[in-house]
Design a protein that fits this description.
Blueprint lengths: L6 H10 E11 L9 E12 L3 E6 L4 E7 L2 E3 L1 H4 L4 E6 L2 E12 L6 E6 L6 E6 L20 E9 L3 E4 L3 E8 L2 E6 L12 E4 L2 E8 L6 E8 L9 H19 L8 E6 L6 E2 L4 E5 L10 H16 L8 E2 L6 H18 L5 H18 L13 H6 L4 H17 L1 H15 L3 E2 L1 H11 L5 H8 L6 E9 L2 E3 L18 H4 L3 H12 L4 E8 L10 E11 L2 E12 L3 E3 L11 E4 L7 E4 L2 H10 L6 H16 L5 H11 L6 H18 L2 H21 L5 H16 L8 H13 L13 H7 L5 H17 L6 H14 L7 H9 L10 H4 L9 H14 L4 H10 L3 H13 L3 H12 L6 H11 L12 H14 L2 H11 L7 H14 L5 H22 L6
Parallel strand pairs: 1-10, 16-17, 17-19, 20-21, 22-29
Antiparallel strand pairs: 1-2, 2-7, 3-6, 4-5, 4-7, 8-9, 9-14, 10-13, 11-14, 12-13, 15-16, 18-19, 22-23, 22-24, 24-27, 25-26, 25-28
Length: 994
Amino acid sequence: MTTNLTRDEAQSRSHLLKVKTYTVHLDVSNAESDADTYLSRTVVEFKARADAQTFIDLIADSVSLVQINGEDLSPAEVFDGARITFPVREGKNTLTIEARARYSTSGEGLHRFTDPADGKVYLYSQFEPTDARRVFANFDQPDLKAKFVFSVTAPEAFQVLSNQAETSREATGDDAVTHYFAPTLKQSSYITCITAGPYEGATDTWTDPVTQETVDLGVWTRASLVDHLDAADILGITKAGLDFFSAEFDYPYPWGKYDQIFVPEYNLGAMENPGLVTFTDAMIFRDKVTDAMYESRANVILHEMAHMWFGDLVTMKWWDDLWLKESFADYMGGLALAEATRFTDGWVTFALRRKAWAYMQDLYPTTHPIVADIPDVEAAKLNFDGITYAKGASVLKQLVAYVGREAFFAGSRLYFKRFAFGNTELADFLECLAEAAPERDIAGWADAWLGTSGVSELSLALTTGDDTRSAGTAGSAGDAGSTGDAGSAGDAASSRGAGAARDAARASITGARISQSDSAEGAKLLRPHTLEIATLGRAGRDIVPLDSVVFDFDEESAEVEQLIGRTRGDIALLNYGDHDYARVRLDEASTETAVTAVSRIKDPLSRALVWSALDNAVRDGLLPVQRYLTAYARSLGKESNPGIMAGLSQTALLCLDQWVAERNFETAISGLLGAALDALATAKSGSDAQLHLANLVLSLTARTARCIEANPSIAMGRAFATQVLTVPVGEEIDSMSPQVAEEAAPETPPAAEADAASEASVASEANPASGSSTDGASADRAAAAGKGADSGSATASRRSSARAGASGPAEHAAASLPFRGLINDHALRWNALTALVSLGWADQTDIARETHLDQSSSGRLRAETASAALPLPIVKMRAWEAILDASQLSNDVLSAIISGFVAPSALPITEVYVDEYFERLRGFWADNSIEIARRLVLGLYPRWSDDEEGVVERTDAWLDENADAPAALRRLLIERRDDLARAIFLKSRQTSRH
């Protein structure tokens, strides 16, 4: 049996066949029972170009009927578990198949979920790339499009939806009803969809402003979540998107109705099934979330809507051209988000977070061109990655800058009209675009951008008088390998140095040269770039644009004459406006300003781009990890953009988890935790920043399980987690309980307190801060995040000194200031409990108590994670045993247990599983579906081991010994190995002061 359909097989089949119609009936009337399978019946009408032997795809428990043109075939002879082989004759053919398909718990095929909140059962399908074959027999490849006619028999209480509207229903007895649906338009099998269950929701309509046609809209979710379904917001985004796309594409929405359903245990963010878009119900917000989450949901809604044209109306022939839908949807979703909704800063999040995914993927040894070589569907499954989505979208932004927006949309409109309901390759789109932009070399652009791997790295060398400042030297702002103070270059600059920097910023540019190189080792790829270059300078306390120029170049380096005579400013920013896809190297002076004052950049997009440059510099070892953490600590409480806040915390936690050397870990996390507590204590009541900081404190506190000693910041973080659990859901966490703080705090000898006060005082004098005493403490803590200074609050230390040797811990700003507007909810409580469990401060009794308070599906998952996070060998052993029996777990339960298994611990209690992981790798892949196998391979990869170099050696040995392993499995291992090798490299460049 082979489940891995190859490109060659698919091409042969598409040359032979032309499919007209599928008539599919599913009987899921037993869904609420313990039955494992359901009836699936398919009748396929198609034409063959010659007499031949072929096969249809089906993964099922059993097949009871195979009939071709009225002739019965023996299922035992023609069905191998994944394919049914049969003869065809030239001309018209009819194939009928009856089978028992299996309910899924992996999120592939027809997934079945029982809601622990009320016991109700829900079904939904997920097919991309080739899992329709798990539900009904079909030629499961994108270029064999057909019309689909579905009927579904389901329990009477179930609402059943499909791509098209229901036309009729019929009671069948035994409390079951058969639902009949209108035929679909011509479409691929992977975007067919069925959902069934007691879903609830809201409906509305949208009227096309041009055609005046009315489209029925629906928004649906589980009954236990419907009270949290903010349908007005979702439908508002939906209508705005339909207005935008129908106008920009000049092609009416083609698929009739537009239902959107939020489903449980979903492997993806969403799926663009025409007429019935599926989303993860994690986007139904039961607890309070920041505006970044609403923006993210809106972006996903618009991304999937763009697919109604890019991907559904016009579809790639094979998965090589997956980018023809995903890159376009990613770009168009971002464009609609910024231009058609309230999220006008939507490109900010894209610049910092989405492109970071692309940059990371492009640096892996497994990177690939946007137009990839996809030999089979296993490779296709893994190509839903940062290259296909984020890099592709970024490159399309560059294409729009290159040809102009009008030409780009003109080419897209021509593409839709020429290839509607058909399949295409790259050349087809390029031909349309070339017709719309004849003055541009579209083919040359495509060769440089779509057919090559790696990312361009851009630098700018500026000359002012006799002074030259060149890019690509971010590391010189505190060399990663030096033994000096990493933060001193900016924090303790002399008045003379500061004055010189101000004079340099005011100086006129006398020379400017831009250069490009490529990230691929040994590559000399020169791509055409159309970008904007800006100089940023100070206007009062803000940093604002001084000048900008648009520049085109395709050479290794070029003079930027437009900059001559303009003011140099404090930051020279390449790719201003973010129209290019390139990693930007800041020059030394710009890096220094960025590290010390990035939060003062007024424009959020420019701020995100500067942060992105710092992210890339620290990832490459050009900027010391602690310098980055210092800059991040300074931003806490100052950054107001929710997308930037989320992106920065993600990178900071990555630094702590993987890139900070063990000898520096306690200093680094203490500094960040102290700064986060300071910022939380003064955050605006009920603000996004307040909620973000509260969750950040809890995330950092969980990681203090690795710390041997508990200084004041660590103690207060743990106290905050404890306090959260004393406040019921819905009530205000109004302040830190002094009693809780004292119980959580360490025993600090008076002499140590005096030393801490003295050291903090020195740090304060070296870096005076304006504003309140808490602001001053934040500045001190920012320095501590990057230096060896004490990480306790300066305010707290001064109070300790004032007590003149009084015993007990130093207090923290958070202990005396109220958290007005911070309302407790289930998410905060679970985050707090999981942190305390990792510390060994809570046990199974506490988990059971919290589970009783939160009996939702998300509560069940959080309980699984917390239970597996208990730092006990017996707990890890039981978690490992459960993980090994993955077939008995649903996809999300498996991931929840893995998350707890690898949670931070003070002791190396999971080291004994390193060898077993490698021994079981091939079994993980062979014995599970690709989705479950992927979760096992990635989630359990032992980067948590204390012996990182040993894990790299073990990975290399496995790859050498398993050269014949599936390519998709090897790719996952190679990428995880690369992550770990980078971590070892970055740690090796740190001294005890870095």
